[in-house]
Amino acid sequence: MRLQETAAATEVLNLTWRHNLALTNRELQADLDSRRSLAEVFRLTRPRWIFAPFWDDAHPDHVAATQLVEDARFWAKLSKTDMKGEPFHPQRIFYYYCVHLKMVPQPAFVVDISEYCEAKLRAVACYASQFISGREHIQPPLVDRLREEAGFWGKVIGTRYGEPIASREPLGLTDFSGLV
Question: Which residues lie closer than 8 Å to 127 by C-beta, 6 or more apart?
Fold first, then answer.
């Protein structure tokens, strides 16, 4: 079921590449094997930026995923190793807020996602097994809640929809022309 949902979301987002480390749901650990696997992906794909769940969340898998991403980012730059790929250090880790977060932290910035919000929500809807099946009583439904939250963050920056992003590291600007 998850593979079918992922394939559908991949199509909605028109992705040309997607990879899954096959780590076990509800048992995610930031262990050495997982760290190595993810560091190798970073070394081979060489992403400029990495996105991970916000570090403070109620869901243990989200917290473990964040720790795993941070650890793998460090490992990816190591030179004395037999990992696949050349040493590489992604420039930044950005943190997105998860649906289990029960607080409203101050983001480092908010991105205007007005052009992409509906596609994001269609992709999320592909994962119906994650938020249906016994949870139909939760109101408003998840996709509606995500749209409302994006509307709130869009209002904060003067756009229709926005996505709050956190950063543990300082951000630099070359000028103010990109600010909305």
Answer: 5, 9
Mention every residue, 6+ apart, whose C-beta is less than 8 A from residue 25. 2, 61
Query: 94 has which bridge partners?
Result: 51
**Joined tokens for residue 91:** 């420039």
Region of residue 147 (left: phi > 0; alpha: psi -120 to 50; beta: else): alpha
Token output for 72:
């793998």
Helix ranges (H only) for 80-141 are: 117-125, 128-131
* In the chain, domain spans: 1-100, 106-166
DSSP codes joined into one string, 120-131 = HHHHHHTTHHHH
CB 95 within 8 A of CB 167: yes
Q: Which CATH class is domain 1-100?
A: alpha beta
Strands 109-112 and 49-53: unpaired
pLDDT of residue 50: 98
As a whole number of angstroms, the distance between CA 52 and CA 16 comes to 20
Q: What is the pLDDT of residues 52-77, one digit of tens each?
A: 999 998 899 999 999 999 999 999 99
The pLDDT tens digits of the residues spanning 158-171 come to: 999 999 999 999 99
